[in-house]
Amino acid sequence: MGGSHSVPIETSIHQFTVKDSSGKDVDLGRYKGKVLLIVNVASKCGFTETNYTQLSELYAKYRHKGIYGGYLQYTDNYWDFEILAFPCNQFLSQEPGTSQEAKEFACTRFQAEYPIFQKVRVNGPDAAPVYKFLKANQPGFMMSRIKWNFTKFLVDKDGKVIARYAPTRNPLSIEKDIQKALGEI
Fold first, then answer.
1. End-to-end CA distance of the chain
2. Low-confidence ranges of the chain (pLDDT < 50)
3. CA–CA separation, 34 and 144 (whole Å)
4. Which of 10, 32, 68, 185 counts the highest number of beta carbons within 10 A?
5. Do 13 and 28 form a contact (C-beta atoms < 8 A)?
6. For position 140, what pLDDT does the model report?
7. CB 90 within 8 A of CB 120
8. Which residues contact 45 (CB under 8 A, 6 or more apart)?
9. Per-residue confidence (pLDDT) for residue 84, from 0 to 100
10. Contact in structure between 178 and 62 (CB atoms under 8 Å)
């Protein structure tokens, strides 16, 4: 009765279902056991070039890498690291096209091989539930608001949000945090 709806009841990112760029449901439970970097992206932002380039570098370096039986191994069968990109048009209309166009831009221009989902709102009453969860678990400088495109959230293998990074923080600068979450250091 009359309780606040601002605090999500979910305890893990794995409890959410989102839409892919073509509108199909994706259960984030499929990422259990993986370290995730979740980013709100835009194709016409001043941070686009650096972020997309470095996200693709990180993905190429860590997607097939993990600790198995105490040994560092590379495998094509199991990916320990995923980047989940969510296009967002909330900041000066810097992602004006469709979700599919946002995906095509990232995949064509920056060879993005990681999942790019349907466009979402990250702030306000219509914010995507997954973003409400992320912000509630790692409030930033602006507390419960996303400041701009390319805000990044690092999520551990259990689906818990462990870090939040400002849009100005380049993806390669958080590589040590990714390595730590993967159990490499």
1. 47
2. 1-5, 7, 67-71, 73-77
3. 25
4. 10
5. yes
6. 62
7. no
8. 91, 94, 148, 149, 150
9. 98
10. yes
Q: How far is CA 24 from CA 62, 118, 138, 155, 159, in A?
A: 26, 9, 28, 23, 22
| CA dist., res. 80 & res. 72, Å (int) | 12
Q: What is the CA radius of gyration of the chain?
A: 16
Confirm if 181 and 156 have CB atoms less than 8 A apart: yes
Question: What does the block give as tokens for 120?
Answer: 């979402």
Q: Which residue do the tokens 């309780």 mark?
A: 3
Q: Which residue has the tokens 């990681």?
A: 114
CB-CB contact of 21 with 99 (8 Å): yes
Q: List, in order of start, the domains of the chain with CATH numbers.
A: 14-182 (3.40.30.10)
Beta-bridged to residue 47, according to DSSP, are none
For residues 22 and 116, give the distance between their C-alpha atoms in angstroms, rounded to a whole number.
10
What is the residue whose two structure tokens read 């979910």?
10
By DSSP bridging, strand 25-27 and strand 161-165 are: unpaired
Q: From 82, 119, 120, 124, select the one nearest 102 (Cα to Cα).
A: 119
CA distance 67 to 48: 32
How many Å apart are CA 185 and CA 180, to the nearest integer? 5
Token pair listed for 19: 């839409």
Catalytic residues: 45
Residue-wise pLDDT for 76-127, tens only, equals 445 589 999 999 999 999 999 999 999 999 999 999 999 999 999 999 999 9
